[in-house]
Amino acid sequence: MDLATKYMYLYGAGGHSKVITDILNSLDIEVIGMFDDNPPNAKFKGIEIRDGIRLLGLGFPQLDAPLIISVGNNLRRAELAKSIPATYGTAIHGTAIISAKATVGVGTVILHGAIVQAGTSVGEHVLVNTAASIDHDNTIGNYAHISPHATLCGHVQVGEGTHIGAGAVVIPSIRIGRWCTVGAGAVVIRDIPDFATAVGNPARVIKVREEPDFSALDSLLDLPSLADR
């Protein structure tokens, strides 16, 4: 067994880290370190919580095992992934059903009872939550979150950073844009544009936000932009 399958680090010591730790432990992977931006308020107990990148900046250590960002908020997870130069692992619960013809990106977490069918591509740092069902030939963008018991039918596209709420249903061949929010229990029967919030049955757009700005974190840490890496 190589290092990548024996040990991992987590970034984020809130409630989500407990779930990911349980998954990793069930796979005989030990969490050997944990980082957080606010260690005194960490919810995880029983392991030393080290300062996160917002406190350490360029002093963030080089890690000797893969890292998973255990932060549920999509925007925060994206900010951190764009700023931490680490090797990233994945955490896939043993009860999840992942087709051999599906692909799953680094940093992604797939929880208990989730299903990912053939031809589907799940991006990097995605959260596929408990009992979510993603059918064939879907494309799930980086940093997305598919909430518990959400159902995506075939040929659905979900953009970067989008949050599909608990119990939502998306009919076949729908495109949901980047950084959208689909409300819990919504039934999506029409495409949804970038940065929109859609709720209801059938789902309707109730507002459109501005595009997220990731430059603030880079400026705070004096880190090079992605284009320079």
Listing every helix as H and every strand as E from the N terminus to the C terminus, the arrangement reads EHEEHEHEEEEEEEEEEEEEEEEEEEH
Number of helices: 4
- Over all CA atoms, what is the radius of gyration? 17 Å
Helix content: 10-25%
Strand content: 25-35%
The CA-CA distance between the termini, in Å, is: 31 Å
The parts where pLDDT drops under 50 for at least 5 residues are 219-229
What structural class is derived from the secondary structure elements? alpha/beta
**Anisotropy-based shape:** globular
What spatial order of strands do you see in the largest sheet? 5-8-11-14-17-20-22-23
Largest beta sheet, briefly? 8 strands, mixed
Oligomer: single chain
Report the count of strand segments: 23
Task: Write a structural description.
- The chain has 229 residues and is an alpha/beta fold.
- It is 14% helix and 27% strand.
- The chain contains four helices and 23 strands.
- The strands form four sheets. It has an eight-stranded mixed sheet with strand order 5-8-11-14-17-20-22-23, with helices on one face. Strands 6-9-12-15-18-21 form a six-stranded parallel sheet, with no helix packed on it. Strands 7-10-13-16-19 form a five-stranded parallel sheet, with no helix packed on it.
- β22 and β23 form a beta hairpin.
- The longest helix has 12 residues.
Helix and strand arrangement:
Layout: E1 7-11, H1 15-26, E2 30-36, E3 49-51, H2 53-56, E4 67-69, H3 74-83, E5 91-92, E6 97-98, E7 103-104, E8 109-110, E9 115-116, E10 121-122, E11 127-128, E12 133-134, E13 139-140, E14 145-146, E15 151-152, E16 157-158, E17 163-164, E18 169-170, E19 175-176, E20 181-182, E21 187-188, E22 196-199, E23 204-208, H4 215-221
Parallel strand pairs: 1-2, 1-4, 2-3, 5-8, 6-9, 7-10, 8-11, 9-12, 10-13, 11-14, 12-15, 13-16, 14-17, 15-18, 16-19, 17-20, 18-21, 20-22
Antiparallel strand pairs: 22-23
